[in-house]
Amino acid sequence: MIVVMRPGATEQEITGVKTLIREMGLKDQVIVGTDLTVVAAIGDERLKDCAVVESAPGVDKVMRVLAPYKLAAIETKQQQRTVIKLSETCVFGGVQVPVIAGPCSVEGEEHILQCARLVKAAGGHALRGGAFKPRTNPYSFQGHGEDGLKMLAAAREETGLPIVTEVVTPSDVELVSEYADCLQIGTRNCQNFKLLEACGNQPKPVLYKRGMSMTIDEYLQAAEYILAEGNPNVILCERGIRTFEDHTRNTLSLSAVPELQHRSHLPIVIDPSHGTGHARLVPAMAKAAVAAGADGLAIEMHPDPAHAMTDGAQSITPAVMEEMMLSLGRIAEAVDRECVKVSEMV
Ligand code: PEP
Ligand code: MN
Question: Is pLDDT of 78 > 80?
Fold first, then answer.
């Protein structure tokens, strides 16, 4: 932490800051410049409340040097990236850029089987589908619950695709973890810290979506809740944030990809479906995400979007997905990555 003193700060004020820094268990070093005096605090400040120093007399501003998240920070792994495997053919954080695809909700047994076959045929690497749906309106369809999980498991059994499905409450974590290959935490639960901890206490990887009004800094601090419980397999997912813009459902922040990769070793996936809310925008944003260096994609695909139980407007058709996958392969290659259909993997 660097503490910049106000011009003309007195000796007494500087001593006060030095005392505060020492009380925090850090060492102080005073640097006297021509116009300003700066006090450097040396030591691990990540768990310290640097804001208290800001209110001390004579202080102009305080700048952190280390991020307040320890386990998620890139320095922790000495620039090495975390690699997370959902199956032999679906690995995040390596050369491959896997595509998770499927309907917003698990609608029924035949339906999810059909979706799984279509995802596989189009070249997708994992199947998504919500069995527990966090709905804005309490009267909307809430998902098939455990039956939905069983349907997903049957689809995995037939196609071999790993399954990614959302968990909305801590008491369901154990159940969802029994069925899923990866637990999704949705945007509405981004700061449900008890849920984050519960997901940190089970063995499956977690697809953790950014809150729709969360800063990158808050996002990584919250991811720390999962990591701190002992689960190192957290896949970050940018799914769009709330802004004044209303031509899209959310504003898809693609700069989150290089920014999160700069700050953290965790893989980052882009969800252009929730990020835009319009199926016609999804392929272009998926391609842009791969070009920006995303470690994966999460996409809503439905065989009959007009009749989807949830999120039909943003669900692409299997035909669009097939075409999109071909472009993704070419773009991935151009940025030294691979997005190869499972059937074509060697
Ligand atoms: C979903 O994946 O269907 C979903 C509800 O996502 P989000 O939490 O990003 O809205
Ligand atoms: Mn959805």
Answer: no
DSSP, residue by residue, 198-251 = HHHTSSS-EEEEPPTT--HHHHHHHHHHHHHTT---EEEEE--B--S--SSSSB
Ligand 1 atom with the smallest distance to the CA of 209 is 9
Q: Which amino acid does the sequence have at 332?
A: A
Q: What residues does 130 pair with on adjacent strands?
A: 105
Q: Which tokens go with 53? A: 């120093």
The burial of 136, by beta-carbon neighbours within 10 Å (0-12 exposed, 13-18 middle, 19 or more buried), is given as exposed
The whole-angstrom separation of Cα 142 and Cα 247 is 27
Cα of 135 from ligand 2 centre, angstroms: 10
Is the CB of residue 149 less than 8 Å from the CB of residue 164?
no
Task: Give residue-wise pLDDT tens across range 157-196.
Answer: 999 999 999 999 999 999 999 999 999 999 999 999 999 9
Q: Measured between alpha carbons, how far is 208 from 191 in angstroms, rounded to an integer? A: 11
Q: 292 C-alpha to center of ligand 1: Å? A: 22
HSE of 32, CA atoms in CB hemisphere, 13 A: 5
Task: Find the Cα–Cα–Cα–Cα dihedral 341, 315, 168, 219, rounded to 10°.
Answer: 70
Query: Which 3 state secondary structure label does DSSP give 36?
Result: coil
Whether pLDDT at 301 is above 90 = yes
Contact (Cβ atoms closer than 8 angstroms) between residue 300 and residue 102: yes
Task: Provide the residue type at 81 as one letter.
Answer: R
d(CA 252, CA 266): 19
Both structure tokens of 222: 């919250």
